[in-house]
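R.M. (postdoc): so does anyone remember the format we settled on? I'll just put the structure tokens first.
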């Protein structure tokens, strides 16, 4: 166990971070250049198969560094095929004060297979400080940010399962769909713009031609509406942005999303327009969760259409997924359809998002470590 704690994880280091870490440990830039693709592009090949790396260097790597994946504590499968994994992390970042007092903690990550794509939903924090009232994660206090290695570990974890389904202990989980991961969404536990340092490293790796080489159009970062300098930094990556709006007026939004007291709707919409200009993306996605008696009237829909009328956007209407102890109920199907029709009739591109994995608490807003 001690061995696992003191070795530094290389899973989430960008090429330049890897080089720095190697130089600090008496290895060379060339070593880093050779090792990087074995980790990222070739999906975590063990040190001993890195054939272009000198044997002596491989020995040092195995001694000082780790390519271990987190332990999977639980793996569940929904009736619709969505999978949710609970991963246990040990904080092994040597720059962290908690190294001496290493502790275990967990997050949930979700794999959503569909006919023409496979999406991984990653978490970026253990718990969340934003306290959105409708969100199960919001009831779990923020413990800490995940490191970039812990974020990338979620991608590697699902990649490994897809490639080698039979290696899973839980044989009841069926991975009949062996197509690779096509999309990554930062929509799990936590707020990406409050852990930007590590989220940006993960984005560099996901987008990097010599790493995972995802198209920027296949990656979505979701925010509850944080308008900080990192939103501008994020636009440099050109990835898709999803903003959780969930109300068409500030009074309602503040009631269900305390962050609205800090960044109100006007502020968010101005930031969204700026993101569009700077990121060269086609549209912003606004997430809108329909809560019965809270934000689902025709008037709400009309007001929303008025707000969004001049922004290139798409509205995702989300049917509320309940969780134990929550005080909200979802709008009826009829109300959801009417809301959608009202937006469409005002020229707003609108989708009713299909809920996935709600029976295993894997759907939007349902993640939480018990
Ligand atoms: S919706 Fe997102 S930001 Fe809000 S509490 Fe849940 S995880 Fe946090």
């Amino acid at each position: 166990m001690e061995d696992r704690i003191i070795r530094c994880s290389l899973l989430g280091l960008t090429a330049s971070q890897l080089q720095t870490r190697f130089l600090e440990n008496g290895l060379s830039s060339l070593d880093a250049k050779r090792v990087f693709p074995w980790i990222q592009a070739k999906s975590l090949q063990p040190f001993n198969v890195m054939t272009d790396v000198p044997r002596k260097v491989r020995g040092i790597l195995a001694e000082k560094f780790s390519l271990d994946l987190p332990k999977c504590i639980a793996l569940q499968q929904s009736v619709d095929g969505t999978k949710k994994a609970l991963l246990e992390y040990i904080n092994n970042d040597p720059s962290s004060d908690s190294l001496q007092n290493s502790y275990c903690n967990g997050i949930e990550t979700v794999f959503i297979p569909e006919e023409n794509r496979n999406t991984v939903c990653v978490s970026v924090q253990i718990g969340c400080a934003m306290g959105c009232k409708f969100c199960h994660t919001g009831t779990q206090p923020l413990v800490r940010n995940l490191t970039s290695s812990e974020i990338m570990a979620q991608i590697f974890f699902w990649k490994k399962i897809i490639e080698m389904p039979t290696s899973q202990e839980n044989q009841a989980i069926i991975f009949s769909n062996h197509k690779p991961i096509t999309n990554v969404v930062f929509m799990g536990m936590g707020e990406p713009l409050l852990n930007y340092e590590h989220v940006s490293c993960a984005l560099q790796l996901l987008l990097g031609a010599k790493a995972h080489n995802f198209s920027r159009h296949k990656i979505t970062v979701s925010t509850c509406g944080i308008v900080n300098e990192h939103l501008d930094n994020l636009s440099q990556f050109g990835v898709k942005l999803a903003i959780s709006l969930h109300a068409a007026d500030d009074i309602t939004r503040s009631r269900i999303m305390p962050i609205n007291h800090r960044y109100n709707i006007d502020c968010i919409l101005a930031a969204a327009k700026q993101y569009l200009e700077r990121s060269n993306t086609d549209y912003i996605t606004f997430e809108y969760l329909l809560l019965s008696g809270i934000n689902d009237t025709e008037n709400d829909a009309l007001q929303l259409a008025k707000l969004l009328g001049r922004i290139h956007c798409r509205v995702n209407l989300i049917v509320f997924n309940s969780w134990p102890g929550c005080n909200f109920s979802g709008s009826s199907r009829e109300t959801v359809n009417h809301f959608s029709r009202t937006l469409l009739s005002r020229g707003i591109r609108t989708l009713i998002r299909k809920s996935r994995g709600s029976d295993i608490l894997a759907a939007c807003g349902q993640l939480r470590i018990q």
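R.M.: ...and that's the designed sequence above, right after the tokens. Also worth knowing: Residues 226 and 301 are 23 Å apart (CA to CA). The chain is about 30% helix and 20% strand.
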